[in-house]
Amino acid sequence: MALMSVEEASALITQGVTALGTEEVSVSAAAGRVLAQDLVARRTQPPADMSAMDGYAVRSADIATTPSTLTVIGESAAGRPFGGALGPGQAVRIFTGAVVPEGADTVVIQENVARTGDTITTTSLTAALRNVRKRGSDFAAGTPGLTAGRRMTGRDMMLAAAMDHAVVPVARRPRMALLQTGDELVLPGQGTGADSEIVVSNAFGLAALARRAGADVTDLGVLKDDLATIRATIARALSGEFDIVVSSGGASVGDHDLMAPALKAEGVELFVHKIALRPGKPLMFGHRGTVRVLGLPGNPVSSHVCGMIFLAPLLRALQGDAAPGPLTAPARLAAELPANDARRDFMRAKIERRPDGSVHVTPSASQDSAMLGILADADCLLVRPPYAPAGRVGDPCEIIPFDD
Length: 404
Ligand code: AMP
Ligand code: MG
Prior knowledge:
By secondary structure, the protein is an alpha/beta fold. It has 4 domains: 6-20 and 173-317, Molybdenum Cofactor Biosythetic Enzyme, Chain A, CATH 3.40.980.10; 31-45 and 143-171, no CATH class; 50-133, Molybdopterin biosynthesis moeA protein, domain 3; 329-401, MoeA, C-terminal, domain IV (Beta-clip, Beta Barrel), CATH 2.40.340. It contains 7 helices and 27 strands. It has helices at residues 6-14, 154-162, 202-212, 227-237, 259-265, 300-317, 372-377, and strands spanning 3-4, 22-26, 39-40, 50-51, 55-58, 69-76, 90-94, 106-109, 113-116, 119-122, 132-133, 144-146, 167-171, 175-181, 185-186, 198-199, 216-223, 244-248, 269-275, 277-278, 282-288, 291-296, 329-333, 344-353, 359-363, 380-384, 396-401. A 7-stranded mixed sheet has the order 1-19-21-22-18-14-17, with helices on both faces. Strands 8-5-7-6-10-9 form a 6-stranded mixed sheet, with no helix packed on it. Helix 3 (202-212) runs parallel beside helix 6 (300-317). 40% of the residues are buried. Adenosine monophosphate is lined by residues 180, 182, 184-185, 198, 200-202, 248-252, 297-300. The site of magnesium ion has 5 residues, from loops.
């Protein structure tokens, strides 16, 4: 089987993928959700010219020289504007966030005036328009403040709320079914302790990264390497309850690797490709109708890396995410590396942040695809492109930080 590049596999997996649908959620529940439509400001911010400081609202023409003396005729506080207009030689006591009264065009900060009774005398020059936040300088009603495809951060939620949106339209979460196969597998705490047993681990990592990518995950459990059993579970997973079915294990071509035959028997149009990546083995993807299927390797590290590289971006694409990832970041090598072969290598690595802000990475001592201790201890994947030349300490490199 010829090797397929990671880029080609990613492109095939996400080909033609669009958001599944839209739902409205409270702005307070929008963190991490992908915005389904542009969000247009319902209000203008600031709604009027507003003071950025505590001081006195004045006409700049009246304070062109220092000292200037003005008469205080009232007060404007946040939420309690001064009702009237300001005439020549007059000032209004003003506080941060208060509407600048009609007639005033600048705010002299209180540190720059001396006050006696209702009279103020300026003690230094203040330019026109100083300390005034102009109406609409943040955003104007009718203009889009947030664009569709954006994964909402807390800061985006602040902006959406300020634009007067109590609810926001977001892509609905992909519903994902997860299953694992292997005669040797037992659930944590449920084995007999026999040497032939392996306690399952893959589903926990895959579910965590899938949820982090926005999916609703249902674990369909651990299945024996038995065609009828696997087929029955796949039939259920494909029956309309889920948008995507993800399996781990049984993806090779051994006698007990029944995932591909079971999927095909259940009518899945399936592609099995050997991908030019390490760690990882054959990857299966396909669909039956609108339900997508992704078959990941059983080796724990391979399943997790393929989850990061292929599954999480697919889930994000199913929400219309404009940047489905995987998101890479620049770093520098902190160790020498040999030249790479034809496979894109995703090495488990530790990050060291130096005082100057630079990020240096050291690959973990073992890159064995079954080593969970090393996977858990690592901070990122260090990406080595196919045929990368030998790397020296200090060379630029690319990492994918773990975010699960
Ligand atoms: P397979 O892809 O089924 O050939 O499995 C490859 C290796 O991964 C074997 O050593 C399995 O025991 C192990 N393995 C498969 N599935 C899981 C799982 N869900 N959790 C932990 N290890 C697994
Ligand atoms: Mg197996």
